[in-house]
């Protein structure tokens, strides 16, 4: 079973836009490995006759009709925004030219 | 060295459903920022998506019209990435089980009909809109961005071609054929200005003697037909130059800047392309039954190719006319409405391809919004046939109808454009012209036939074009006593 290295922790952290101290990275590597090991126990089961599945419910085709419902008020929408400009959420720029 | 370009297009189309893909927010374009959002499309904790049935129906139609195989069991996946226009931190999209695949679209190029293979058609949701501030408005210099989530969650169709296109021109033809098809299906406005049709391109070049594809770049922001060809031209030349010098193409995403006509490398912190797809646990899978596919197939309208053939066979139109008239569904419908009311299809076609199209282009008007209706045009054509107006006068009548929406008879009467059919009045004008043009009349009497044309012109001038030239001709001959 593959082990989560520190580099992988850094990669995942970068994808999630998270920053960790060296100490935390060590700790996370250990914890992520424990989680993987735990999940890995499933592979010990004999699942030859179990069809692959992504959902536990035996349901398909749950739809809604194309009918409008009221949206939230602007006050509600922007209630949790850190910063607001012209009724928009204001965020730091994130694109940089390479 | 001979290089060949290899182009594949990835097109995104906003479906024209009334509500978003997974919530009941309105999709109407142009409303004030953040007035069409709810807990689902804003990703508030605890909210759950629910699939819009109409969006699936539309996608089935598109997949069928593009000759795709329909995936009977299909599901949504989460595509994980962080970007401020995506509040959930993932986009609900499709991954290994897209609704349609292995299709094709036929396009008409100068070298004949070509099949462009469609790799896949899948459903996803649109993202919000980032409004970049900054000094020059250039994306890379923006300091902060404002986010409007009105478009976030609008049903989006991704249509990906195989790398079957070879020139910027072909890419343009493909995109306009695709747009035409989608408009026929009435599943999207395909309005590039409003972003309901967007296009990215994968481009590589290879030496003519190689089979293998070269390293490709992806060019984004090709949001008009003009940008598409300009960006492709630039990028193909850029790659050729690098290869000719023995250089290496870097696989990357590039942004097309319409002000400089160049593509530039665009890298963000999230360019790792590690999307960690996994099945969307909040949505159960779709089962597209044969019955549903059949219903979709039955609901398909006549598509552009079939309509073109029918216009040639049914109305006896030349291929050129049939192609032009069916290049938009609105124009084709306009033509057919006219053809129901007037018996000479080619005359209708001439007016639609000529004066009507020029006026539409000059005023940037869509056929659907034109003040001239089939009734206007056909009534006018009847006035010409009845001899009430001349073909020449009809042109100004048409323009007046186009600008005001008034009926032709009204325009003709108000402006006094009726042809002068009264022989007595014309005879009086003919006499005047003969008296005023001694030289020409003398020439004519001495056998110079060409002088007659000049005299006819003089009479026409006096009537401001409102006389029947044949009638004037006859009256002049009678007066001058020629043959
Ligand atoms: Zn919503």
Secondary-structure map with pairings?
The complex is a heterodimer of chains A (98) and B (483).
Chain A: H1 6-15, H2 22-40, E1 63-64, H3 74-78, E2 84-85, E3 88-92, E4 95-96
Antiparallel strand pairs in A: 2-3
Helix pairs in contact in A: 1-2
Chain B: E1 3-14, E2 51-52, H1 53-65, E3 69-70, E4 73-74, E5 77-80, E6 90-93, E7 100-109, E8 112-125, E9 129-132, E10 144-148, E11 155-161, H2 168-185, E12 197-207, E13 217-220, H3 225-244, E14 253-257, E15 262-265, E16 267-268, E17 278-279, E18 286-287, H4 290-298, H5 304-315, H6 319-326, H7 329-341, H8 345-363, H9 374-385, H10 391-404, H11 408-414, H12 423-436, H13 438-445, H14 450-462, H15 469-480
Parallel strand pairs in B: 13-14
Antiparallel strand pairs in B: 1-11, 1-12, 3-7, 4-18, 5-6, 5-17, 7-8, 8-11, 9-10, 12-13, 14-15
Helix pairs in contact in B: 2-3, 5-6, 7-8, 7-9, 9-10, 12-14, 12-15, 13-14, 14-15
Bound molecules: zinc ion.
Residues 20, 23, 25, 37-38, 40-41, 153 of chain B line the site of zinc ion (ZN).
Largest interface: A-B, 39 and 60 residues
Share in β-strands of chain A? 5-15%
Roughly how many Å apart are the termini of chain B?
71 Å
- Shape annotation of chain B: elongated
CATH architecture of the domain at 6-43 in chain A: Orthogonal Bundle
For the largest sheet of chain A, list the strands in their spatial order: 2-3
| Structural classification of chain A | alpha+beta
The major β-sheet of chain B equals: 9 strands, mixed
Taking Cα atoms only, what radius of gyration of chain B do you get, to the nearest Å?
A: 30 Å
What small molecules accompany the polymer chains?
zinc ion
Q: What is the tally of beta strands of chain B?
A: 18
Mean of pLDDT of chain B: 90
Multimerization status: heterodimer
The residue-averaged pLDDT of chain A reads 88
Specify the number of helices of chain B: 15
Top CATH class of the domain at 6-43 in chain A: Mainly Alpha
Please give the radius of gyration of chain A in angstroms. 22 Å
User: What is the helical fraction of chain A, as a range of percent?
Assistant: 25-40%
């Amino acid at each position: 079973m593959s082990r989560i290295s520190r580099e992988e922790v850094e990669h995942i952290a970068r994808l999630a836009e998270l920053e960790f101290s060296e100490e935390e990275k060590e700790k996370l590597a250990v914890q992520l490995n424990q989680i993987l090991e735990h999940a890995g126990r499933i592979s010990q089961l004999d699942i030859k006759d179990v069809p692959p599945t992504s959902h536990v419910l035996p349901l398909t085709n749950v739809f809604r009709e194309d009918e409008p419902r009221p949206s939230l008020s602007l006050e509600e929408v922007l209630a949790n925004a850190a910063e607001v400009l012209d009724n928009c959420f204001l965020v730091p720029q994130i694109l940089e030219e390479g | 060295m001979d290089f060949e370009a290899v182009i594949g297009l990835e097109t995104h189309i906003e479906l024209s459903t009334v509500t978003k893909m997974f919530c009941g927010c309105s999709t109407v374009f142009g409303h004030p920022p953040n007035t069409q959002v709810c807990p689902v499309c804003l990703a508030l904790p605890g909210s759950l998506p629910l699939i819009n049935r109409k969006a699936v129906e539309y996608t089935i139609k598109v997949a069928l019209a593009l000759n795709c195989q329909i995936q009977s069991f299909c599901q949504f996946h989460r595509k994980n990435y962080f970007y401020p226009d995506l509040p959930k931190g993932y986009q609900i999209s499709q991954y290994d089980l897209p609704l349609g695949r292995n299709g094709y679209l036929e396009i008409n190029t100068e070298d004949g009909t070509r099949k462009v293979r469609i790799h896949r058609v899948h459903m996803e949701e649109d993202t919000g809109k980032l409004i970049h501030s900054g000094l020059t408005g250039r994306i890379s210099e923006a300091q902060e961005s404002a986010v409007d989530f009105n478009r976030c969650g609008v049903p989006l169709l991704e249509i990906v071609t195989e790398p079957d296109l070879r020139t910027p021109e072909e890419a343009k033809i493909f995109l306009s054929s695709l747009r035409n098809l989608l408009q026929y299906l009435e599943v999207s406005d395909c309005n590039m200005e409003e972003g309901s049709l967007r296009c990215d391109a994968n481009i590589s070049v290879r030496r003519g003697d190689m089979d293998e594809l070269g390293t490709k770049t992806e060019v984004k922001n090709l949001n008009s037909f003009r940008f598409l060809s300009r960006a492709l031209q630039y990028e193909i030349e850029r790659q050729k130059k690098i290869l000719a010098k023995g250089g290496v193409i870097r696989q990357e995403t590039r942004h097309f800047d319409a002000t400089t006509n160049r593509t530039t490398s665009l890298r963000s912190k999230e360019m790792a392309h590690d999307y960690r797809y996994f099945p969307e646990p909040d949505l159960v899978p779709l089962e597209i039954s044969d019955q549903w596919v059949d219903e979709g197939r039955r609901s398909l309208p006549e598509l552009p190719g079939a309509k073109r053939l029918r216009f040639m066979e049914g109305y006896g139109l030349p291929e050129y006319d049939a192609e032009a008239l069916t290049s938009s569904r609105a124009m084709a419908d306009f033509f057919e409405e006219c053809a129901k009311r007037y018996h000479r299809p080619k005359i209708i076609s001439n007016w639609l391809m000529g004066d009507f199209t020029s006026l539409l282009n000059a005023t940037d008007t869509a056929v659907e919004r034109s003040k001239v209706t089939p009734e206007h045009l056909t009534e006018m054509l009847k006035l010409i046939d009845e001899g009430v107006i001349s073909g020449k006068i009809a042109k100004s009548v048409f323009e007046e109808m186009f600008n005001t929406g008034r009926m032709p008879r009204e325009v003709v009467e108000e402006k006094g454009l009726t042809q002068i059919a009264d022989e007595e009045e014309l005879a009086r004008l003919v006499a005047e012209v003969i008296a005023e043009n001694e030289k020409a009349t003398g020439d004519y009497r001495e056998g110079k036939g060409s002088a007659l044309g000049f005299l006819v012109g003089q009479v026409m001038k006096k009537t401001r074009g409102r006389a029947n030239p044949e009638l004037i001709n006859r009256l002049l001959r009678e007066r001058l006593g020629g043959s």
